Amino acid sequence: MKIDKVNLHVIKMELKKPFSTHLGTVKDREGIIVEVVDENGIRGYGEGVAFSTPWYTEETVGTTLHILKEVLIPLLLKSTLVHPREASSLFSTVRRNNMAKAALECAVWDLFSKQLDEPLWKVLGGTREVIAAGAVAGAPSVTQTIEQVHEFVRDGYERIKVKISPSSDYELIKEIRQEFPYLRLMADANSAFTLDDIERLKRLDEFHLEMIEQPLGIDDIFEHSLLQKDMKTSICLDESITSFHDAKSALALGSCGYINIKLGRVGGYSTAVSIHDLCGREGVRVWCGGMLEFGISRAHNIALSTLEGFDFPGDISSSSRYWEQDIIEPEIQVINGKINVSKEAGIGVELNRKRLKEVTLFTEEYSL
Q: Which of 62, 121, 204, 355 maximizes the CB count within 10 A of its CB?
């Protein structure tokens, strides 16, 4: 597999509604669409999911562009790959920068599966032809959050995640649970708490949440193990897990009952599948997290979620959840809480070139 050309499209779209967490409010979303093109003109697509500023991780759209342009794309163009797994090995000489690596590695996997004329999920070893979808509620007030949850329930989403923080936790979850006593509900703290809040967090046990995601520090594994020993509710690790080694350490310490696997956060499919397999062997559940993505990344998330261990609904909502019009065709649709997995080659979607042009800030092409 020889890559002849790589195109980068930096795009920006306004969300239909602002998305709020204790870290801030996102009103529009910048991102990078990656195209890798082989000698026969077959194209594979990836997406850089870093945000414009480093509020979620240290990576940004700017740093991703730099690493792609100056380091990763030159490495790829000089190489001939037999299998996409070799891209991960090729990029291992570069420290961190997982979102940049994933953007390019995922595009290579899409291209490879199209060359085989097979759906990517089958190439990965996926078994699910239908996956369950979950949604994320993030709004400035309790009333608005409950309105969002009502909307998601009407649309059939099978699990709702609610953003919490020390200024909005117990009372928020209490009101939602009173309104929806049987809803599959989880909370996401985005590292808003410390071990000093342990009694406060334990109060949430009464609401029978599926899990509390990343309550403590973004790079912590050990303190989560102490918290998990003291809580009935399962902890899910997100930001803490950026590598296979992180996952192995977390499982050895008993730090969590779930791991949220994000392709961008762990550097692409090779690491994501390895973490999935490890968790399966150790009896820890996994699910696929989201990053307010555009349609390319959503399609990759669907492919990943077909693997056997992804038995808990992920953050994979309809394209129309966030965008007036996505950049892909067909757009992602959730019907009665489910997504039917495409049987088309690759990730099963193509770029809507007209829409892409409307939202593109600039495009750059790279070749040898």
A: 121
